[in-house]
Amino acid sequence: MTFKLAASPHSHQRRTTQQVMRWVYLALIPGLLTLIYFFGWGVIWQLGLAITTAWVAEAICMALRGRPIGFAWRDHTALVTAILLAISIPGLAPWWLIVIGTAFSIVIVKHVYGGVGQNIFNPAMAGYVVLLISFPVQMTSWPLPAPLSQFDLSFIDSAVLIFTGYTPNGFDLEQLRMGADGMTMATPLDSLRTALNHQLTMGEALQQPIFGSLAGIGWQWINLAFLLGGLVLLKVRVISWHIPTGMLLGLAIPAAIAWLFSPDQSVSPVMQLFSGATMLGAFFIATDPVTAATSNRGRLYFGLLIGFLVFVIRTWGGYPDAVAFAVLLANMTVPVIDKYTQPVAYGHGERS
Amino acid sequence: MSYKEITWQGLWENNPALVQLLGLCPLLAVTATVTNALGLGFATLLVLVGSNITVSLVREWVPKEIRIPVFVMVIATFVTVIQLLMNAYVYGLYQSLGIFIPLIVTNCAIIGRAEAFASKNPWRRSAFDGLMMGLGFTLVLMVLGGIREIIGNGTLFDGAELLLGDWAAALRIELFAVDYPLLLAILPPGAFIAMGFIIAIKNSIDHYREQRAAKPAKEVTRARVTAQ
């Protein structure tokens, strides 16, 4: 009998990048649908703009670098970057916002560093941070979730608003964001921060109409939908459990400690977990295989660090949500994490 | 070193901002507009020429061991002179540059030239070297300021009257109207990104020139090196 000798690696990952990316955007669908339900058709237009920009930018970059364009299009990573960025920004933001952000993500964050697999920072989140720093007003103008809004924009109305700044009826975004009482409402995390800064207790802050049974109206369902999509990704083993678990624990533990000590002045852990971009960040953004840590132990630390940073920035930082900043800061630590969590090869190390 | 060589070194080959990467702090902090860039570049240029001449003149009498403190004192004197002059004559610009005028003292490009060139060369050449290094620095500042001002605000030479007098208000060019300035370009991160691109362009030009200048392989002539 003959022994067949096969070269390493001995275990195979049969999925191509394209298949992995396809799973990622399939798993985003439940979150996307709830997002459209609560924040209107604008989300679809933002998606279209983002994907178009990403493809054009990718083609231009590949042409400049003298590489085959089709190759970059086929791996679908630009598509996922575009989708993540499009669902991170307010649905009715002006069209140039998403175009600038996506172009920055693809050209500067991805291709200047050498294209797929070479980037240090998560492209979608770097683009998001560029937009948030450059255009803070547009980036925090979230429309009201559908149950609170007094306007119902059609598909075409949303497009007219995104491209011209006014709906066909002459309303601008600021007017659309007003509730029935004529007051503009901020996102749940933003309202909490403002309320706490005004010396209100948590109980008083939660009286505002934007809060539902679990977290903010709309936002809780969106986060649950992203959680569902994330669990699907876990189930089909596109991502491992280490980063999401790490991030959620890293956020929930300090939040729980703060909440137990002073429930009146701190945001409850449940609210932290189901508000803003927590679930999207934990399952879809932090798990980017390129910019996250490599080993399983490293991934756990990486996730914990992101969660903890989210808590710190949400509590004491200058911006209402923190996932993007936390992910970028953690991206910087990845080389160090990788260095100290490198697994010991079989037969080496102390116990051998 | 010939004057031509000094010019080439200062403006391109050994440019303080693009190649030596010295003085990045003011470079990145104040180049939000062309006017600020020009003001700071001009101030640095004057300090550089003055300190180079002085250091070169006293180089025979400064003991090697304490040369750095002496150079710093000379530079600090010139910076103080420039600061007082700017305070007196271009007050608006003085205010918009703020702390970065006194901080010229810590600009490594200046002490670097004192140490590397002026302390070893006669004063005329040192003065010329200061002029060329200062011009190289100023040009990079202006290019960077121009890029950031165009991307951030869509204008050029905004506020030039602060530096050049009232007639210069006519210099202001509005390339396109922006409703919302792109803050990233105006804030320091934009300066880092733009600077990276400028350095990359400079390197690719050098690369291209090298490739063109690459002569056909020389005939190898072997010399006998072993002694008999």
UniProtKB/TrEMBL annotation, chain A:
GO terms for cellular component: plasma membrane. Pfam families: NQR2_RnfD_RnfE. GO terms for biological process: electron transport chain; transmembrane transport. The modification FMN phosphoryl threonine is found at T187. It is an enzyme of class 7 (translocase). It is a multi-pass membrane protein. Its EC number is 7.-.-.-. Keywords: Cell inner membrane, Cell membrane, Electron transport, Flavoprotein, FMN, Membrane, Phosphoprotein, Translocase, Transmembrane, Transmembrane helix, Transport. Its cofactor is FMN. It is found in: Cell inner membrane. The chain crosses the membrane at residues 20-38, 71-89, 125-144, 210-234, 241-261, 267-286, 298-316. The complex is composed of six subunits: RnfA, RnfB, RnfC, RnfD, RnfE and RnfG. Part of a membrane-bound complex that couples electron transfer with translocation of ions across the membrane. Belongs to the NqrB/RnfD family. This is Ion-translocating oxidoreductase complex subunit D. It comes from Pseudidiomarina piscicola.
Automatic annotation (TrEMBL), chain B:
One of its GO terms (biological process) is electron transport chain. It comes from the Bacteria. The chain crosses the membrane at residues 20-49, 70-91, 97-114, 126-147, 180-201. Coiled coil: none annotated. The complex is composed of six subunits: RnfA, RnfB, RnfC, RnfD, RnfE and RnfG. Belongs to the NqrDE/RnfAE family. This is Ion-translocating oxidoreductase complex subunit E. It comes from Pseudidiomarina piscicola. The gene is rsxE.
